[in-house]
């Protein structure tokens, strides 16, 4: 038993005076600067250090309580966490935003200026990574014992610039000033093995054993990021792994006297965690990517097993004390790695290990698109992870035996279900490995889960229907309402109190006031103020002047053909042509934001043509305020929180059947934007929640899209019947919007006329009709305000807290463990 002083935790004060003291001390002790000379960045760092010591205190309290209470824990394995800025979020969730603001003011520093200095932590591509960040925040907020594991990329999502029209990628050196939020844990390092070969050891009685020998080793070192819950004392942990060379590396060549080679090799081995792959919808297929996946999975599983055993549990209790969620197939190699650790390192029998693994894992699918499904050549897997390839063969063998037994003689089915795809030069299907190795598989919206069961995983669904569940995505109201939209938060507080901050369903209390004229006016005033705030930022970033009194029509998301930014662009060109022809059209600002994967030529072409059209439209004196078009550069979490509260209209116009869920759709609707959308992903559930009167649905359904494709689409025939659309396409392909090289848009014309793989042309008439419905409603300010207020009031279902409860109850079987005001520590 440790002495009382040893178990004591500091319990720092959270009032203005206490904070001021901590911050002033930190400038000297941590930053190493004289307070008289400290810069704004020095103060930012000092403030961050003052918060982080308070966070770690609660983190330790939380950990003690979880250990005392014997809780079951969930571990979220994700290659991506799109966190954004941490300072304001941490201040708010720790409940010290206002005292800190005052403390900084006392020190002569404006908090808002400081908040703006922070770089986004952009360790993700888009929806999948942002969902992971929302889930961690909600786990802490609801008091669930939940931990994130991922990679500490040195370079996150690239910074996007336009030069002047096309996208240029710049490295995101987010760690260049160091990072006050992380705790490097040099005591938490695990060896990660690559290459080499497997040796079999036959035992006369009992199973054959395997050892994995030679090859290379790198170390995975932990960096901890405490994650505070809102309105609670729980602080959970996100553990990110960085690659470090082993000592062996050093010794090998230093001893041979090849100093330069030694240093180069050391650096090479540390590239594993260097950079996030900026692809959001294609499988990457590079050896380094496979190594990244295995690197973070192996480190995380070793850590999980260490903790499990250190807490005194035996391995048979694994599924009772541990749930592991695989965020897409990126960590799916975990199924084989856990088998390796249990069988080879802990010497469990194969069957026992398999039972434990399957009951521990669950897998979330985020896409149906074939090009995004990860498959690895058997030859590559054999070379990089030879032991795992053997384990996968064994898993597949056992699995196919089961299938044979159930469907004798059905060889086609065996080939379809097999973890190894024999058709395309032998590849490992990671999605199949994930389904076979998990007790639950979920899609991320009702339609998506249904389509998973009917298409991608049809054969698996027939085999194990009970394994498939839906968990519709959600968003955290702490970031996407309280932080992003303080004006609306304040208004909601005045009208219905603040309970909705903990239980978003309580927004429904707003419904009875939807036609209250005072509320409508206040609501529209808030929206206008948010539009002014955005207009200022747009002026600063692009020089374009926006009129806050016209409709702000917003499409912000990754650039992809299926998301159909081209559909919105055709509408812009159509409106522009009609304005020039003297027609009277409803005025609007169209704002695009989003990045294209660097190797995705079509997406980059879409960015370029939008920028070119915008440049002409915005400078045409004949247009004035009736139409403005902006491509907001470098769209990221921090700019999203300015754009979203300012949107009147939310564009969710993907080809039906392609967007798994969407979460931008939820953020925008929650902030009072009305959706123009297809019946795709979670749009369907949003329509069901908000009602037909608050959403503009258009276009082909997922079934109709399939039917349309089967019938052989004919965009030329459609164009022949729609003069406005035809004129817009002609205007683009004629080179009207390119000054230098009129040929560049010819290709886009050909693409729309002859390929149009995502049916932009086929859905165009329905789309513009939906836009006109929106224009008509927008012109009636009272009717619009009422629809928008109802929209907000009915969005409670899309809280990430509901999503996390669904996972906890349907998949993880964990319960909340709120941290009590300290018993061990006597803290208030
Ligand atoms: O996941 C997205 C889907 O496209 C959205 O419909 C859905 O709402 C979100 C959250 O479930 N998928 C991604 O964001 N995918 C990626 O970012 C990604 C990253 C690496 C490799 C492949 C895909």
| Bound compounds | N-[(phenylcarbonyl)carbamoyl]-beta-D-glucopyranosylamine
Shape field:
globular
For the terminal residues, how far apart are their CA atoms? 25 Å
The CATH C-level name of the largest domain is Alpha Beta
Beta content comes to: 15-25%
> Structural class of the helix and strand makeup?
alpha/beta
Radius of gyration: 28 Å
Number of β-strand runs: 24
How many separate domains make up the residues? 3
* Overall pLDDT: 96
Modified residues (N6-(pyridoxal phosphate)lysine): 667
Cofactor: pyridoxal 5'-phosphate
Family: Belongs to the glycogen phosphorylase family.
GO molecular function: glycogen phosphorylase activity; pyridoxal phosphate binding
Secondary structure: elements and pairs:
Blueprint: H1 4-7, H2 16-31, H3 40-68, E1 73-77, E2 81-84, H4 87-93, H5 97-106, H6 111-115, E3 121-123, H7 127-141, E4 146-151, E5 159-162, E6 167-170, E7 183-194, E8 197-201, E9 209-213, E10 216-228, E11 235-245, H8 247-256, H9 259-269, H10 287-310, H11 318-321, E12 322-327, H12 334-345, H13 350-360, E13 361-364, E14 375-377, H14 378-384, H15 386-406, H16 411-417, E15 420-421, E16 427-429, H17 430-436, E17 440-443, H18 446-454, H19 458-463, E18 468-470, H20 477-483, H21 486-496, H22 517-542, E19 551-556, H23 565-580, E20 588-593, H24 601-619, E21 627-632, H25 637-643, E22 649-652, H26 664-670, E23 674-677, H27 683-690, E24 695-697, H28 702-710, H29 715-721, H30 723-733, H31 746-755, H32 760-779, H33 781-793, H34 800-812
Parallel strand pairs: 1-4, 1-12, 4-11, 12-13, 13-17, 17-18, 19-20, 19-22, 20-21, 22-23, 23-24
Antiparallel strand pairs: 2-3, 5-6, 7-10, 8-9, 10-11, 14-16, 15-16
Residues 125-129, 131, 279-281, 366-367, 372, 444, 473, 659-663, 681 line the site of N-[(phenylcarbonyl)carbamoyl]-beta-D-glucopyranosylamine (BZD).
